[in-house]
Design brief:
Strand order of the largest sheet: 1-6-7-5
Order of helices and strands: HEHEEEEEEEHHHHHEE
Distance between the termini: 28 Å
Oligomer: single chain
Radius of gyration: 20 Å
Structural class: alpha+beta
DNA sequence: AGACGTACCTGACCGC
DNA sequence: TGCGGTCAGGTACGTC
């Protein structure tokens, strides 16, 4: 599921519900997700007040008094309210009770998600976070910087943009959409993009992500906003999952094609993306 | 070091 | 109806 816009949407929903609240009970209904839960997770989170919630790349960071709770949603993770009268469902792996009576479930059928806990001081040394590249919205990210950074990358631009150590937060959908908007073929080597192309691509990446955040993300199968609403950016896809359709670009007679690039489905218009 | 393939897990969907 | 194959928004890790 979740790329930067979906994680941002979830963070905002969680923040509205959780900031200022205290976790009264935390229940783990299995010993692990993708990895084992961190040691003493229940003890370290229980009775702690939630100060703030932030997103870093595709990670949710929940700041408590002493620890930061890191959550990655993997492919199918989501948070949803759980009514007290209902028993948790099959894939409700973590149950959070708050001091105002609200109850949330972390639900993740495929269990590619994971959680970690780290002290405030050690946040920057966390093995998951320390490898991450810059945020696409970061002010220090410029076309010049990206042009230079990617000039040594001998992989298709599609693959390179998915690499979280280069730029963090993009996933399969928004890479396809950004490249279409920029008329750049996903097969092009990252090192072959000119500065002028980066001057088009970077603003377009930001444009696509912003529009998706404003739409509450994309709901294909699993993504839900924390309030249960679907995201609706999937109705605005230009290419993703659109193989066989006519290219929407004005004056383009091309047909959207699906190729596999580094084992991921890649949608683009061979006519206008060069 | 950098690039690539595969593993992890469940569910939905398709063709037979 | 049921079965097997394929695919899905992500990341880590082994191998070359």
């Amino acid at each position: 599921m979740p790329e930067l816009p979906e994680v941002e949407t979830v963070c905002r929903g969680l923040a509205a519900m959780m900031v200022g609240r205290t976790i009264t009970h935390l229940t783990l209904r299995r010993p692990n997700l993708r990895y084992p839960f961190p040691p003493l997770m229940v003890e370290r989170l229980s009775l702690q007040r939630i100060d703030r919630i932030e997103r870093r790349a595709k990670y949710i960071q929940i700041y408590l008094s002493e620890y930061v709770w890191l959550i990655h949603l993997g492919m199918s993770g989501r948070f949803q309210p759980l009514l007290h009268v209902l028993a948790p469902s099959t894939h409700d792996h973590v149950i959070i009770d708050l001091d105002d009576g609200q109850r949330l479930a972390y639900h993740d059928p495929r269990r590619f998600g994971f959680m970690d806990l780290c002290s405030l001081k050690e946040l920057h040394f966390n093995p998951h976070l320390k490898k991450l590249g810059l945020e696409p919205f970061d002010a220090e990210v410029t076309p010049e910087l990206l042009c230079q950074k990617f000039s040594r990358v001998n992989r298709p631009i599609k693959t390179a943009l998915l690499d979280q150590t280069l730029v963090a937060g993009l996933g399969n959908i928004y890479v396809c959409e950004s490249l279409w908007l920029s008329q750049i073929s996903p097969h092009r080597l990252a090192s072959s993009l000119s500065l002028n192309e980066w001057k088009v691509l970077l603003p377009n990446i930001r444009e696509v992500l912003t529009r998706a955040i404003n739409a509450g993300g994309s709901s294909l199968k699993d993504h839900r906003q924390v309030n249960g609403h679907l995201g609706y950016f999937q109705h605005q896809f230009s290419v993703y999952d659109g193989q066989g359709r006519a290219c929407q670009r004005e004056g383009c007679q091309g047909t959207i094609t699906k190729d596999v690039i580094s084992n991921r489905s890649t949608y683009y218009c061979p006519q206008c993306q060069r």
